[in-house]
Amino acid sequence: MTIKYIHLHSIDSTNSFLRSHAPVESTDMTVVTADVQTAGRGQGTNSWESEEGKNLLFSLLIHPAFLPVSHQFLISKAMALALYDTLIVYTGTGLSVKWPNDIYWNDSKICGTLIETSLSAGRIKDFIIGTGINVNQAVFRSDAPNPVSLFNIIRKETDRRLLLDTVIRHFEENLRELEEGRYQDISSRYHKCLYRGTGMHQYEDSSGIFMARIREVSADGCLLLEDDTACLRRYMFKEVKFVLPSSSEAGNLTLV
Fold first, then answer.
1. To 10 degrees, what angle do helices 160-179 and 183-192 make?
2. How far separated are the first and last CA of the chain, in Å rounded?
3. Which end of the chain has fewer CB atoms at under 10 Å, N or C?
4. Model confidence over 82-123: pLDDT tens digits?
5. Buried (b) or exposed (e) across 121-147, using 16+ Cβ within 10 A?
6. pLDDT above 50 for 43
7. How confident is the model at residue 48 (pLDDT cuts 50, 70, 90)?
8. Among residues 57, 82, 77, which one has the least CA distance to residue 67?
9. What is the tally of helices (H) and strands (E) in the chain?
10. Closest CA to 100 of 220, 244, 231
11. 106 vs 92, 93, 147, 189, CA distance in Å?
12. From the CA atom positions of the chain, what is the Rg in Å?
């Protein structure tokens, strides 16, 4: 796979840069990193807090025309697994993939991903994956409910470029599995890593808080929950929230 790397000191958003960047025709993947993002984005209207030069902020552009549009969520799974496999080496334990593609350490968020897709003639034309990993930042000052960094966990700084190279290597390996049609291998590994993958937990939808267990994440990325009345509930992203214990005050609840 041919990969082009672009490093920027400052940019509004690495995803926005790649949307307007014309890649070299022979390039399979374009990776852009930044020391600081002035308008880093999360899902929806969320922003991403990052101290300059402390964290790993990057986006990559691929063109997975081999994958049917109906299976595009497999790319999200492949990236989540690449991040998980990279970070678990450092944390040892406590890591999981929170649906759809955040990486959690215990009940705290260490990594977030924003995905943007464009289609052409019924195929996937461009797939942009923007990721922020909290690496060496010690203190978070925004009102984000539950951030944590690798530094907070292991108490020492980590080489950001080494981290990036490892993520890209794992992602390349996962893409090869998808090109070979090994969809189930990726899906099985993803499900094994899921945050709250076992047991009953609290969730909230438009009707209120309820108890449920994760049954599966469907091929199109929907979360299937079985509630405490044995009723199956199906959710697209942003239609349901995970109810977490607050890290600041015992007994409080946080929705993420």
1. 130
2. 36
3. N
4. 999 999 999 999 999 999 999 999 999 999 999 999 998 888
5. eeebebbbbbbbbbbbbeebeeeeebb
6. no
7. low
8. 77
9. 5, 13
10. 220
11. 12, 9, 11, 19
12. 18
